[in-house]
């Protein structure tokens, strides 16, 4: 049955304590107790509904976490001060020295750097694989593998992960499947397809304004309680708390996410179909020529489309830079990293958001030196944007 995350969010009954239609913003770092015993119980995680200290929980962050859990069809969620904080805290909660992770070689550059360069300092090994090849994933599994980590749609090559198959492999080996769903909120619901943990950079589509940095971890009650445990919870002890004002702002923006994702997807599909006839090498999961097009159709919540990300391969960095400068001058959008903004953003991935990936690895994974990644905006007249892009080409 098709899942509708927008409906789940709108079914939440969240309103202000004093009659406001929006929940009140938490303006306190610490909270009072009527009895010392209640404070002690809260430290031990045994006082439901009580708040201790904002690094642990506060009402604003709890409201947003509840909405994200509804969005992702998980029992609970935890919000963080960045997407990288969500990824790193979740992985460090799952893994200790001597453990092993299997991950996609095609992934966000910051994530790649954490997995490749940072985790080995703590004797956590990582094997990078072609995540679209289940046999390669299976072969990489070890007795000490704790996590398979992937992105629903990978950055920047837009490969689609077979989440049910990856979940089967992970669970067969006693591991967890962790999925970054930043590119496809509403479109994909990884937890319904077997993912144990879903992470986000809320900076991107979920917030949609590029005016803050934030992240989220959506998972079971058990895992979120582990993360927030005062004695050994990674999120609690490393302290990447999200500011209450930002939580409240993101929560309001979340209620327009369904409209925005539909428009992002509509515009991206329009551009992809038209530009695909120009003879350029173009990557977009909504095109029938995409290797995982049918898989995407199988996994997606259909009314939200194929997403707002597409990529054009111009072969060389020099051509990519010239093209992007022309597009910015023509008013197509901005030459900038990040995505999910209401204006179109574009960058040459190998020299920006994937620059942490060594050149030889980029070549092995098929990342061209001239690949331009587009985050297509919410333009009302996408036909006019197409004309501008064609003129720049």
Automatic annotation (TrEMBL):
Record-linked CDD domains: CGS_like
Protein's UniProt keywords contain Lyase: yes
Top-rank lineage group of the source organism: Bacteria
One biological process term in Gene Ontology: transsulfuration
Cofactor(s) the protein requires to work: pyridoxal 5'-phosphate
UniProt keyword list: Lyase, Pyridoxal phosphate
Record GO terms (molecular function): carbon-sulfur lyase activity; pyridoxal phosphate binding
Entry-linked SUPFAM superfamilies: PLP-dependent transferases
Positions where N6-(pyridoxal phosphate)lysine occurs in the chain: 204
GO cellular component terms, A-Z: cytoplasm
Matching Pfam families: Cys_Met_Meta_PP (PF01053)
Family: Belongs to the trans-sulfuration enzymes family.
Protein name per UniProt: Methionine-gamma-lyase
